[in-house]
Amino acid sequence: MAEPSAAVRAAGRRLVRRGALGVRQTVARRKRLLMYLAILGPGMITANAGNDAGGIATFASVGADFGYSLLWLLIPITISLGIVQEMCARMGAVTGKGLADLIRERFGVRWTALIMLALLVANAGVTVSEFVGIAAASELFGVSRYISVPLAAILVWTLIVKGSYKRVERVFLLMSLVFLGYIVSAFLSRPDWSAVAVGLVKPEFKLEHAFLFTFVAVVGTTISPYMQVYVQSSVVEKGITPENYAKTKIDVWVGTIFAILIAFFIVVSTAATLHKAGIEVSSAADAAHALRPLAGRYAETLFGIGLFAASMLAAGVLPLATAYSISEALGFEKGVSRSFREAPIFLGTFTFLVAVGAAIAIVPNLPLIRVLLVTQVINGLLLPFVLFAILKLVNNRELMGRYVNGPLYNVAAWLTAIVVTLLSLLYILSTLFPSLLRF
Fold first, then answer.
1. Residues 110-153: pLDDT tens digits?
2. Is the distance from CB of 344 to CB of 114 less than 8 angstroms?
3. Please, is 398 exposed, middle or buried when counting C-beta atoms within 10 Å of its C-beta (0-12, 13-18, 19+)?
4. DSSP state string for 39-64
5. Which of 397, 263, 322, 259 is nearest to 99 (CA)?
6. Residue 92 CA from chain centroid, whole number
7. 3-class SS at 69?
8. Nearest CA-CA partner of 126 in 377, 382, 367, 357
9. Which of 4, 157, 234, 338 is in the most buried spot, having the most CB atoms within 10 Å?
10. Which domains does the chain possess?
11. Secondary structure of residue 278 in the 3-state scheme
């Protein structure tokens, strides 16, 4: 057999080198992907918990009532949410303490007790709404709430009480992936993408009660006090330090962008169908029902699955955030990886909220709207106090050292706090005294 020529041998060597290079590049890409997946956690979970049953209902109403005209609001909200979440995550990494812990140390027991009481009442009410969301989603698929709600409560309780932090985090992250269904649902709705682009870049504001109410509700449902408590406490429990905080900062911002992107597609899907048909919605389940004849059975199914996953995620995160805050405020042991003997107040508070939330959610003819209004008013009153406490803490050089806010970041953070405060006050006024804001 003749020996291959020099040219053939050279060509063979080049192919081998290219193959080896391709393998190395593939391995490198996989390593980068694995590293990225490894850092996902507190930021992704917290931001997506904000897209709960109430959040989905709010964004569905935005699309149904105003079409694409409020999409531009999602851009400043992304920045504001990311800034607030990042400050809390950074405080957790630097101090090794939760938000309620720092508030108790720096502002005293009385202020802490007042804030924690308001947070407990508000979160208990919103927890009920999450189990109502689970009931509504399951009934879309023909499963009675008397079966789905108790099973969901048992599942959430078992996951938290019997699981480790890593397991809880993984399950919550998997639930977050279900939100991708809203993207598919939006494309099935066949929106007018040119109108979507205009809605994103052309701000529209009207001095009308309904518009103002919706505008404020969007901000209120996106930035909630329990989210700040949870992200800081989970950063602490995960053992994140200033040395490895850079990856968590990426997680916070990626989680924020992902969560607002899902809100964007909820608005787009309902604007393309319900707004076009002149259909109003008062709940996320209404939106899912209404999508079926307009965008097909699969759009309704995806919307329903997203509602169920969102409610399950928030039904776990909300009671957890409350348990963290109460335990930190009172100086008790806390942590998902702890047993009942080690952290009775923490796990007892969590168990109480899950049990009460599930029990109330299956009460026939529940006046849910009234419950939600009361809890939203409490959250609206509480949010400014929490935001200004966060800003005072994160700018305390004795506490944060070189990790205090920079000048530019501080301007954006204070502007966020002031705007959110004003909008919260307007929201409270529009809830308690609607006649004052009828232009």
1. 878 877 877 787 788 788 888 888 888 888 888 898 999 999 99
2. no
3. exposed
4. H-SHHHHHHHHTSSHHHHHHHHHHHH
5. 322
6. 18
7. coil
8. 357
9. 234
10. 51-437 (1.20.1740.10)
11. coil
